[in-house]
Specification:
The protein is α/β, with parallel strands linked by helices. Helices cover 28% and strands 24% of the residues.
Length: 306
């Protein structure tokens, strides 16, 4: 029998299990995908801990995961855009991608381009669409200067590249260990921590036009002190600060569709976007994968492979 990640109540890593489940059967408009790679994301850890129990409650036993890439195993009635054997990138809204097989609405799938690895494809949806929406929300034009916090993380590493593609000068806040990666991608690296405001001003040569916060912990206030207009600040995590200062909170929800996913896959295939892969874990080591993720020090994405 196929295996899938499950948890039966809210809690820490110990509630995650890999169990045998019935093989899903696609209904009308659905596709059964044999998963080759599935990214993991901080939001999933928060849901599993019960942080969003009131807003997005889990139904137990709950599966986990949105991101996926794999091969079409079976197609249900009425599916015309994909066929058995197709290699696809996609997403599910059913918290189910961390599994050997997953049911996906056919409209949530795009073809996997030849030069996009399974790992990059499987890690693309949540982080990619979040970065896309955040960059779009701050309205970058050629010559603008944008600061990105958490610039080497899963979302930040994509956001800095999309901002560069828009013609902006990008200042990336990250650890010293990520300076070379950022510089190699056309980003001016600035070390986070005490004195970061002075270091940003020293790196500027002008004013900050926009700010994208992927990390939280006071960066919205920093953006305000740097003189950035609230309508050009976007945070994907610090909702309290956003409410206080009237800044934007656009993320994956605003770009969660197959059209954006296909655009991002095309950028990877064209060599204009890289999805850095921090580490790949087998499905059976899902607890270890999330333990790694929750340290918040990885460069890029962590991926599960069934």
């Amino acid at each position: 029998m196929p295996r899938a990640v499950r948890f039966s109540h809210y809690g820490g890593l110990e509630v995650l299990e890999v169990v045998e489940v019935e093989r899903p059967k696609p209904g009308p408009g659905q596709v059964l995908v044999r998963v080759k790679a599935a990214g993991i994301n901080p939001g999933e850890a928060a849901i599993r801990k019960g942080v969003f129990a009131e807003r997005w409650p889990a139904t137990f036993p709950s599966g986990q995961g949105s991101d996926l890439a794999g091969i079409v195993e079976e197609a249900g009635p009425g599916v015309a855009n994909v066929a058995v054997g197709d290699e696809v990138i996609g997403f599910t809204n059913s918290r189910a991608s961390q599994a050997e097989f997953v049911l996906v609405e056919s409209g949530n799938l795009v073809p996997r381009p030849q030069h996009v690895s399974w790992e990059q494809a499987g890690a693309l949806f949540v982080a990619g669409t979040t970065a896309y929406a955040a960059v779009r929300s701050v309205g970058l034009s050629a010559g603008d200067t944008v600061v990105v916090s958490g610039a080497a993380g899963g979302v930040g590493s994509i956001a800095v590249q999309l901002a560069r593609n828009a013609g902006a000068k990008v200042i990336g806040l990250a650890s010293d260990a990520n300076r070379k990666w950022l510089a190699d991608h056309g980003v001016t690296p600035v070390t986070y921590g005490d004195g970061v405001e002075d270091r940003i001003r020293a790196a500027l040569g002008g004013k900050v036009d926009a700010f994208i916060d992927t990390f939280g912990g006071g960066y919205v206030e920093l953006a305000i002190r740097l003189g950035v207009a609230p309508n050009r600040i976007d945070t994907i995590i610090d909702f309290a600060a956003a409410a206080k200062h009237g800044v934007k909170t656009e993320g994956s929800y605003e770009a969660a569709n197959a059209g954006v996913l296909g655009q991002l896959a095309g950028l990877i295939a064209a060599g204009r976007l890289e999805i850095p892969i921090a580490k790949v874990y087998p499905l059976a080591q899902v607890r270890e994968a999330y333990r790694d993720l929750e340290q918040r020090h990885t460069r890029g994405k962590i991926v599960l492979e069934p």
